[in-house]
Design a protein that fits this description.
mainly alpha; Serine Threonine Protein Phosphatase 5, Tetratricopeptide repeat; rod-shaped
Length: 218
Amino acid sequence: MRYFLTLLILLLIAFAPSLAQSSEEVYIQIKGLVDSSQWDKAQTELDRVLSRNPNDATLQLYQNFVWIGKADLAYSNRKFLTAYGYYEKVFKAWPSHPGVRNRYLELRAKEDLKDLQEEPKTTAIVKEERGVKIPPQNPTGSGSSKAVFIFDPSLQETSARVKFEYDKLLKSIEEAKKNVVTKNNIQVTESFNPKFLWLGIAGLSILSLINTFLLIRK
């Protein structure tokens, strides 16, 4: 009997370094998975080793880190009910953690706690016809009105031509006003033709009309 006990003690002493090395390798592996945010793989490895050693403090710490990572991920994806479950587990084991405590209390205070679906992205419907672009309509029917600018090549060409004629008329009017001659120290002003004034007013009206069509407000 004494011989058997001695042999058992010698075997334990011989295998103790290898067992310690194996545990250290497990810690390093799980820590690497946690640091790289591979929560599912880390959880799988933790389930395997915790089933054999559920009271290991280091493994329990890594388990809390995995729960926090999964909770934060679920919270960012609007899965509030799932996130609450993970935060609750961590809060029971680590109630002094400030971030977990605040998030846990926030979710617990919500009356209708559930996992929300991701909001569908509105596809912009753009109609292109002769340079005309129409933005997507507001589905709720609310919101501030937006100005829609229509860019039509033909209208741009017309506007440029009218502007050119208008500038030409203004130049003629200015030259007519300055066409003053001085003779024998007497200032003589040539007669001014009123038709230039009316042409200028007509050109200005046409330009204003074109600009009105170019700018359409909803």
